[in-house]
Write a structure and sequence with these properties.
InterPro entries: AAA+_ATPase, ABC_AA/LPS_Transport, ABC_transporter-like_ATP-bd, BCA_ABC_TP_C, P-loop_NTPase. The protein is an alpha/beta fold. It contains 12 helices and 10 strands. It has 2 domains: 177 residues, P-loop containing nucleotide triphosphate hydrolases (Rossmann fold); 81 residues, no CATH class. Bound molecules: adenosine-5'-diphosphate and magnesium ion.
């Protein structure tokens, strides 16, 4: 069986920085794959490569067995790949439903661009887009906030709107870059539950997440990066128990004696 996503020997060099240095990985359909690694290890760069926002220096990308390494970023969405960002990127003067409605179809940065884009759609298409937006807002449990502005919502819900926006393009693969950053424990648990529900719906996901306990609870597989290298892959437990992963997080000495990583998971 062909994997849904295949990343083969990808290198990304920013000047002298080797952000990714020969990374290969695969994601099977239905998987929820976690990426761990210290700050600066290349996690966001890998998500950028997979979504084609970052051009690899070399390497190959395949989705459903077909190369898309030369597909421009704005066409990746139509392949069935969507993402959320490390920081909230909602448009503040559009309502929640409007933010979701533009989906990832428009990687617009300004209100005029969005309004213009919307105006160019036929009435029928606008209606269809709105129906999809309402459906995904319901999916993430946010129907009652659809007419609110992002700034009126608590941070945790703003992040949830971002997930809805990514879902509006009906992706087969969703990449989430630290979707629970800045959230409290209860909010993190709720996002974890949502990602598990999306997995049950059949959505394949790649998740960058620092909370290893959450990762252990929801991920079906994991990889670890360090200095742009893939240093471990397997089940979440195999990955966090890998000596190289412990060393990357804790330093060699500490890794021999102490395991807050495993304590976090067992607690
Ligand atoms: N656009 C860029 N230009 C130059 N260096 C970058 C750029 N993006 C990332 N880097 C560098 O690449 C490395 C990996 O970064 P990143 O993928 O953001 O790590 P992570 O998400 O794991 O924290 C870091 O050293 C970072 O400073
Ligand atoms: Mg990052």
């Amino acid at each position: 069986m062909t994997a849904l996503l295949e990343v083969e020997d990808v290198h990304v060099h920013f000047g002298g920085v080797r952000a990714l240095d020969g990374v290969s990985m695969q994601v099977e359909e239905g998987e929820l794959l976690g990426i761990i690694g210290p700050n600066g290890s290349g996690k966001s760069t890998l998500v950028g490569v997979i979504t084609r926002l970052t051009d690899p220096t070399s390497g190959e990308l395949r989705f459903r067995g077909r190369s898309y390494a030369s597909t421009p970023a704005h066409r990746v969405n139509s392949l069935g790949i969507a993402r959320t960002y490390q920081s909230v990127r909602l448009l503040p003067d559009l309502t929640v439903v409007e933010n979701v409605l533009i989906g990832a179809a428009v990687t617009a940065v300004s209100r005029p661009a969005v309004v213009n884009w919307l105006r160019l759609r036929s009435r029928g298409e606008q209606g269809r887009l709105r129906a999809v937006a309402e459906e995904v807002l319901e999916r993430v449990g946010m129907t009652s906030s659809s007419k609110a502005y992002p700034g009126e919502l608590p941070y945790g819900l703003q992040r949830r709107v971002e997930i809805a926006r990514a879902l509006a393009s009906k992706p087969a693969l969703l990449l989430l870059d630290e979707p629970t950053a800045g959230m409290n424990q209860a909010e993190r648990r709720e996002i974890g539950d949502l990602l598990l529900e999306l997995k049950a719906d059949g959505l394949t996901q790649i998740l960058i997440e620092h909370d290893l306990a959450m990762k252990h609870r929801i991920c079906s597989s994991a990889i670890a990066l360090d200095f742009g290298h893939l240093i471990a892959s397997g089940t979440p437990r195999e990955v966090v128990e890998d000596p190289r992963v412990r060393e990357a997080y804790l330093g060699k000495q500490a890794a021999q004696n102490y395991s807050p990583v495993l304590e976090a998971i067992d607690s």
